[in-house]
Amino acid sequence: MDDLERIATALPRRIDADPENVEKGLVQLVLTLVELLRQLMERQALRRMEDGTLTDEEIDRLGETFMKLEQRMEELKQHFDLEDGDLNLNLGPLGDLL
Amino acid sequence: MTSASPALQQQVTLVELVDRVLNKGVSLTGDITLSVAGVDLVYVGLRLLLASASTLDRLDAE
Amino acid sequence: MVHLYALVRHPAALPDMRGIEDATLRTVPVDGGVEAVVSDTPNGAAPTENAIVAHARVVEAVAETNSAVLPARFTGDAGSDDDVRAGVARRREQIGAALDRVEGCVELGLRVLRHQRAADAPASSGREYMQRRLEQVEQAQAVARDVHGALAGLARESTSQVVARGELVLTAAYLLPKSAVDEFRSTLQAAEADAKDVTLVLTGPWPPYSFTLIEGSGG
After folding, report:
1. What mean pLDDT comes out for the span C8-28?
2. Residue B30 CA from chain centroid, whole number
3. A26, A51, B21, C97: which has the fewest C-beta neighbours closer than 10 Å?
4. Do C53 and C5 contact (CB within 8 A), yes or no?
5. Residue C103 pLDDT grade (very low, low, confident, very high; cuts 50, 70, 90)
6. Residue B24 DSSP class
7. Cβ–Cβ below 8 Å for B37 and A40
8. Shortest Cα distance from B6 to chain C (angstroms)?
9. How many A×B Cβ pairs under 8 Å?
10. Most confident listed range (B43-47, C5-9, C88-92, C151-155)
11. Rounded distance between C-alpha atoms, residue C63 and residue C65, angstroms
């Protein structure tokens, strides 16, 4: 049962249609886009790291920036009572960019 | 089948159902879309309800 | 206003059921031997739970009675019969080709989940963070290659996305003839046994939502 719950949270959930939650839905959408951009950038950076076109200092700085962004995202999610699964709108063709 | 539990199977099936109906399939008219980096991202819409387990019960029963 | 469920070849075999808001199903014949399966929704159709399920049911039933089906995406409003005709006419060649492509086929969906180790202590440096992320992505890609590699060869077409986010490693869809589904399932079970620490979740068979127009992508 623990395993199941762990894995289930990896799956996307849908936005609640209750009008009282519309604001939360907007926040969800915005945070999803921010998270998407963060991941796109991170993936780009990882590719350049693999290619060897980043200096050690750049890698370190980028890593710290992404860590801070991740932490900030966690804080925002907690503040708005959202979980990982809430920010996983289907990416469609954008998924190919990751 | 695979090692997925029935509950996980059910949950994934639900997600995949909604995903297919809303995001896949042919579209003859323009949807509301957001563009990011020149790629269209289909906007699901804020009026979508969370599908509940009762939906799957209904699906199973019929 | 009409709601569009699917495109099929003429002559369409309409299933004996109702659509969204209990409306009667009917067809709109279009150019080039294609028919659109629709129902009337005077106020447009909002994507509520009931509507989504009703839409899916109709598409499923249409796929049972017609050998080539292009499922339609749920949009609020497909306009009038003429709008549907015009929309299909505009993409007539692609639609014809797509119907040929999905003839006799179903779609199977796959999600590959990877059990994650308990969270390590936060990375002590930016460089360590990047290193860990790189490893995660590379591991995910390796798993995806093994699993998807084994399955894609059995399918007529497939789509896949390596996700590498949390536990979700890969999502994929496979287009295959109905007769090939059992063999596919067996291969999947074997692939899961070979891969380490993964759970494979197979869904379907679905009507071919993900293979409707452009190769490998839905819509």
Report:
1. 95
2. 19
3. A51
4. no
5. very high
6. S
7. yes
8. 10
9. 60
10. C5-9
11. 6
Using the CB atoms, write b or e for C37-67: b if 16+ within 10 Å.
bbbebeeebbbebbbbbbbbbbbbbbbeebe
Is C189 within 8 Å of chain A by CB? no
C35 three-class SS: strand
* Residue C2 contacts residue C78 (beta carbons within 8 Å): yes
Q: Which helix (H) or strand (E) holds C168?
A: strand C168-177
Instruction: Note whether A11 contacts B37, CB cutoff 8 Å.
Output: no
Whole-angstrom distance, CA of residue C123 vs CA of residue A19: 40
Q: Are C67 and C104 in contact (CB under 8 A)?
A: yes
Please state, for a pLDDT cut of 90, what percent of chain A lies above it. 20
Q: Tokens standing for C211?
A: 């293979």
Contacts of A7 in chain B (CB under 8 A): 8
C47–B45 C-beta distance less than 8 A: yes
Q: Which residue from B5, B36, B46 is facing A4, i.e. has the nearest CB?
A: B5
Taking CA–CA distances from C171, the nearest residue in chain A reads A95
Q: The complex's ipTM?
A: 0.87
**Beta bridge partner(s), residue C24:** C18
Contact A38, A70 (CB under 8 A): yes
Q: Is A37 on the interface with C (CB under 8 A)?
A: no
- Strand B39-42 and strand C168-177: the pairing is unpaired
